[in-house]
Amino acid sequence: MSFLWRVRQLFDGDQSMEKRPLVEEAPEIGAEPQESVPAAGQIMRQQGGSTRREAADFDALEELLIDAGIDVDMTMAILQEVRRGGLLGRPTAEQVIERIRGRLSAVLDLDSTLHTTGSPGLPAVVLITGVNGTGKTSSIAKLANMLKQQNHTVLLVAADTFRAGAVDQLAILADRVGVPMVRSVEGQDPSSVVFNGLQKAVADKVDVVIIDTAGRLENKKNLTFELQKVVRVIETKFGLPLSETLLVIDATTGENALMQARAFSEAIPISGIILTKVDSGAKGGSIVSIARELHIPIKLVCNGETLMSIKPFDKDDVVNMILLSE
Ligand SMILES: Nc1nc2c(ncn2[C@@H]2O[C@H](COP(=O)(O)OP(=O)(O)OP(=O)(O)O)[C@@H](O)[C@H]2O)c(=O)[nH]1
Ligand SMILES: [Mg+2]
């Protein structure tokens, strides 16, 4: 059952309840049939019941929002908006959904332009970061393929020197896409690979360089140091501005996604997010927390394992993903 379905069930699913008295009392044995005009006490009890039911509805809605991965602050903001939305009486499910949709859209409404054009005659440099297994290497292949289809020349740089096999994985994908790659050996300083890569990119007049990195968040100090060193090589040694520093976030990750975003953006400035695995039953609510707290826009969305499974961010798609999550 999707989030949307549950909200509909909650606010529209029991219309027949409206017609029933809110406080039902068993008639006394042998009592006369009740008057149709209720006594003052009964009205008060009914109003109390209505308030109680409203509170129960909002408690249930709060649970649904939290369950969809929306953080507590955002959930409270949504509930407040639904409550004070000028709605007379009990809101319909559509009114509630419209307000939730509006609020999520407003938070996700950041500049999601992907910058892949360097200064005249120089390559655009795109650095890809993120924790292990989020989809960095696959997203690089998808992005390279997308750029190649737009007639850009692309060079990949294998700067994940930590994991055995990482270079070969990228090499296979580079072959499949049909773009060159600068190799590294396991344990090599990532910034020295980046240096080699940029030298080649400038010499070959490549349009876009995409750099793969290792994402060992468990050793945060080293990761921060390595990433900062890579950024220094690109920006200071080479004098090339980073066009994009993209953080890859797996949409199926819960609130840990926000921790990841905080950790990486403390290390280096993150310009955008690649949201992956939206095809894998993702709830995705945590992406809203990242947008709200860190103002990092989503720039690309990956929804499968083929090279074509990548598209520019579309706000409505992501809001629908959250609303339709199970
Ligand atoms: N279904 C689905 N799977 C994906 C998507 N993106 C990546 N994957 C899968 O996720 C797994 C990890 O992807 P990688 O690209 O190797 O992730 P990584 O971040 O480079 O991992 P490390 O190099 O180990 O840090 C692979 O099995 C990918 O096929 C996606 O959008 N949808
Ligand atoms: Mg990788």
Description of the structure:
- Strands 3-2-4-1-5-6-7-8 form an eight-stranded mixed sheet, sandwiched between helices.
- Helix 6 links the parallel strand 2 (154-159) and strand 3 (181-182).
- The chain contains eleven helices and eight strands.
- It has helices at residues 3-12, 40-67, 72-83, 93-108, 136-149, 166-177, 190-203, 220-237, 256-267, 286-294, 315-323; strands spanning 124-129, 154-159, 181-182, 208-213, 242-250, 272-276, 298-302, 310-312.
- 47% of the residues lie in helices and 13% in strands.
- Helix 1 (3-12) packs antiparallel against helix 2 (40-67), helix 1 packs antiparallel against helix 4 (93-108) and helix 7 packs parallel to helix 8 (220-237).
- The protein is of the alpha/beta class and 326 residues long.
- The relative contact order is 0.14.
- The structure holds guanosine-5'-triphosphate and magnesium ion.
- Guanosine-5'-triphosphate is lined by residues 130, 132-138, 160, 163, 166, 215, 248, 276-277, 279-280, 302-305, 309.
In a nutshell, what does this entry contain?
With 326 residues, the chain is α/β, with parallel strands linked by helices. The chain has helices spanning 3-12, 40-67, 72-83, 93-108, 136-149, 166-177, 190-203, 220-237, 256-267, 286-294, 315-323; strands at residues 124-129, 154-159, 181-182, 208-213, 242-250, 272-276, 298-302, 310-312.
